[in-house]
Specification:
InterPro entries: C-N_Hydrolase, C-N_Hydrolase_sf, Nit1/2_C-N_Hydrolase
GO cellular component, one term: mitochondrion
Shape: globular
Number of helices: 6
Number of strands: 15
Protein name: CN hydrolase domain-containing protein
Radius of gyration: 19 Å
Structural class: alpha/beta
CATH topology of the largest domain: Nitrilase/N-carbamoyl-D-aminoacid amidohydrolase
Strand content: 25-35%
Largest sheet: 7 strands, mixed
Domain CN hydrolase: 1-230
Oligomer: single chain
Bound molecules: the ligand NC(=O)CCC(=O)C(=O)O
Number of domains: 2
Organism: Oryza rufipogon (Brownbeard rice)
């Protein structure tokens, strides 16, 4: 997936987004043997991205690779600037866990450790928030990026056949429309002959702040190219001033993500979720 910024500053040569886990099969059994030590400078995959970014003078949101660090494995995305330097590193925050008997069972947490920090980074193609695949299901993360002034959120991804058909488009459009910004996704292509049980859904896309599909792929291998006009963000926000219409008197957007009562309420069975309207949410301070 490649994109080019066309407004809101000097045009750059653009950016490229890769998919989730592009340097090896997305299989929990074999992933550990492909882990690379990014901080230790022993990552052939990131070195390759850096070389390409510097040679082409572009920003690369480098999908994700298994990152080995202090004896643990993370699902990690590096953002690389046109000088070939790593500008940011995002470790997947929400690991994908699913168990639909007879259909799909997948547990990333058997292999990966979850990251601890959201990632927002200023690049030549705008201010980018990063999420990796399953991170897209959590609207709070996208809201956080919006509140930090993100122009676009990049989600390197690998949705599957069980959830992709119903939800993939919906997720991307929801995050874009709720937050009135651009959402860019990149998925691997589907390989019908793959030996893995995990069949990829595909359909990488660039979605605009009004939910419009600017560019999209099918499930086959493709390069998707789209233009991001930053001025559209303000236009849509002026046309439809959602932020001004929030009913802070009814629901607070100052979220408290910790605290015993909140935890107890959030994790209670549905029929015990009383007093929910008393729960205040305040955004976890993010340094
Ligand atoms: N690789 C992933 O995180 C897949 C997420 C997914 O398919 C979902 O439904 O969520």
């Amino acid at each position: 997936m490649t994109s080019r910024k066309v407004a809101g500053g000097a045009p750059s040569d653009g950016g490229v987004l890769f998919q989730e886990i592009w340097n090896c099969p997305y299989s929990m059994e074999t992933l550990p043997s492909h882990g690379e030590d990014i901080d230790g400078g022993a990552s052939p995959s990131v070195s390759m991205l850096s070389e390409v970014a510097a040679r082409r003078r572009i920003t690369i949101v480098g999908g994700s690779i298994p990152e080995r660090s202090s004896g643990r494995l993370f699902n990690t995305c590096c953002v690389i600037g046109p000088d070939g330097q790593i500008k940011a590193k995002h470790r997947k925050l929400h690991l994908f866990e699913i168990d639909i008997p007879g259909d799909i069972t997948f547990r990333e947490s058997d292999t990966f450790t979850a990251g601890q920090e959201p990632t927002i980074v200023d690049t030549d193609v705008g201010r980018i928030g990063i999420g990796i695949c399953h991170d897209i299901r959590f609207p709070e993360l996208a809201m956080l990026y919006r509140s930090r002034g993100a122009h676009l959120i990049c989600y390197p991804s690998a949705f599957n056949m069980s959830t992709g058909q119903l939800l993939w488009d919906l997720m991307q459009k929801s995050r874009a429309v709720d937050n009135q910004l651009f959402v860019v996704t990149c998925s691997p292509a589907r390989d019908p002959n793959a030996e893995s049980d995990y069949m990829i859904w595909g359909h990488s896309s660039l979605i605009g702040p009004f939910g419009e599909v600017i560019a999209t792929a099918g499930h086959e291998e493709a390069t998707v190219v789209g233009e991001i006009d930053h001025s559209m963000i303000q236009t849509i926000r002026d046309n439809l001033p959602l932020e001004m219409q929030r009913r802070e008197d009814l629901y607070s957007t100052h979220w408290l993500m910790s605290g015993e009562n909140l935890q107890a309420t959030r994790h209670a069975p549905l029929d015990q979720m009383h007093n929910c309207n008393e729960v205040k949410m305040a955004l976890q301070p993010w340094k």
